[in-house]
Amino acid sequence: MKYPMTIGNLIECFKKLPGIGEKTAERYALSILDLDDEILNLFADSLINVKKRIKRCKKCHNLTENDFCEICQDITRDKKTVCVVEEPKNIMSFEKAGTYHGMYHVLDGLISPLDGINPEDINLDSLIKRIENDEIEEVIIAIKPCIEGETTSLYITRKLKDKNVKISKIAYGIPLGADMGYVDPLTLEISLENRQQIS
Amino acid sequence: MKYPMTIGNLIECFKKLPGIGEKTAERYALSILDLDDEILNLFADSLINVKKRIKRCKKCHNLTENDFCEICQDITRDKKTVCVVEEPKNIMSFEKAGTYHGMYHVLDGLISPLDGINPEDINLDSLIKRIENDEIEEVIIAIKPCIEGETTSLYITRKLKDKNVKISKIAYGIPLGADMGYVDPLTLEISLENRQQIS
Questions:
Q1: What's the gap in Å between the CA of B124 and the closest CA on chain A?
Q2: d(Cα B2, Cα B151) in Å, to the nearest integer?
Q3: Over chain B (199 residues), what is each successive 10-residue block's mean pLDDT?
C-alpha cells in the first residue's frame, strides 16, 4: 500500500528540502491536511512566484524583488563601509544583531580551486569595482573561518592592497555564553592567538 | 531589513508545519530558490489539491482519493481480520513491515474524557457496525500504550464482549535492537508482566 498520489507527491517535494528524510517529509505532508486553505493558497502562490520575483540586487547581490535591495536603497545607511559576506542569509544575521549600519556585498560562494570555484566565479569583480567607484573607506570581511574563507580573504586583501581602503576581518574566538569546556581546540587556539591586551 | 515579501511569506508558511521554527523555516524558504520549476509546480499543485482530493475511506477511514482505500479494495487481503489503529499513518508503518495482510480501521483519536473526547467522537460506532456486518473473526488492537489507549481498548473489548469475535492486543515490551540499559522502567515492567514461558 502506498499513500494516495497527492500525498505521495507532497512527500517527494518535501524530501527535496535540505535535511528532510522520508519520515519528516511524511509528517509534514500529513500536517498539510490540517492547514487552512488561506495558508495553503499563500504557500502554493509563494512557491510558484518566489523564483520569478526574487532577483539579486544590482549593487550588492542581496535578495530583492526590485533592482536594488532595501539596504542599498536606504539613504540613512553609511555608504562608505562594505561588509563582505558569503550568502544573502548572512546579511539577515547581521541585521538581526542590529548594530551594523553600513552596506553589504554578497559573494555567493568562496574561492575553492579544488571544487573548481575561481575568483571569477563569485562576485569579486563587482566588489573591486564598487570599492573603486563608490569611494569605499572600509571593507569588513565577514566570512566563516575555513580554508576557502581564508583564501578568499587573502585574494581580496591582495586585490585591494594598492587602493586607499582599510580592510578588516571580523573577530574569530570564543562565542559569548560558551562553556569553555566545550570549545573546540582550533577555536581555543585562534582565541589565544588573537588575544587582546587589556591592561 | 526584512526578507523580500515572497520569501517572508514562504518563511511564515513553513513555520506552520509541525516543529519548524524561524531558523529552519528560513533555511527551507531560501532552499526553494535552488529547486527546479518542475518540482515547484508539482509542490504548489499538490498543496492546493491535497485537501480537495484526499478523502477518508468509507469503510476504514484510511486516507484515499476514492470512496474506498487501496486496502479495502484489495480482494487478495484477509477480510476477516481488522487491525484497529489511531491514525492513518499507523497503517503505513504496518504496511512497511509487510507481514500483516488483513484490514484496518482508523479511529482518528483515542477516548480521553479529560480532553472531552468521548467514544462517539472517534470512529468507534463504525468499527462495531463493521464487525457485525462483515463477520469479522479477529480484532487486533494496535494502539500505543497510554491511558487513553487503554481506555479505548477497554471500551472496544466491552462493546464486543457478546459478539462472537476474538480480540487481541499487539505486544508491548522491549523493542528489537534495544540496549537493556536504556529501556525505561515502565517498559521493563510491562515486559516482565507479559513474559512468555519458553520451556
A1: 22
A2: 50
A3: 89 95 94 93 94 93 94 94 94 90 95 93 94 91 91 93 90 87 87 85
Which of B18, B35, B48 is facing A41, going by the closest CB pair? B48
Query: Residue B7: enclosing H or E segment and its boundaries?
Result: helix B5-15
User: What ipTM was estimated for this complex?
Assistant: 0.80
Residue type for position A70: E
Long-range contacts of B146-153 (CB under 8 A, 24+ apart): B146/B110, B147/B112, B148/B110, B148/B111, B148/B112, B148/B117, B149/B86, B149/B110, B151/B110, B151/B111, B151/B112, B151/B113, B152/B107, B152/B110, B152/B111, B152/B122, B152/B124
CB of B93 less than 8 A from some CB of A: no
Interface of B with A in 48-77 (CB under 8 A): 48-51, 53-54, 63-65, 69-71
Span A68-97, average pLDDT: 93
Cell of B109: 483519536
Any idea what DSSP says for residue A117?
Answer: B
Whether pLDDT at A56 is above 90: yes
Residue ranges and CATH numbers for the domains of chain B are 5-53 (1.10.8.420), 76-169 (3.40.1360.10)
The answer on pLDDT for A124 being more than 80 is yes
Q: For chain A, how big is the Rg over CA atoms in Å?
A: 22
Query: Within a 10 A sphere around the Cβ of A87, how many other Cβ atoms?
Result: 18
Q: Are A46 and B1 within 8 A, CB to CB?
A: no
**Cβ contact A89:B31 at 8 Å:** no
CA pair distance A70, A62, nearest whole angstrom: 9
User: Under an 8 A CB cutoff, do A27 and B18 touch?
Assistant: yes
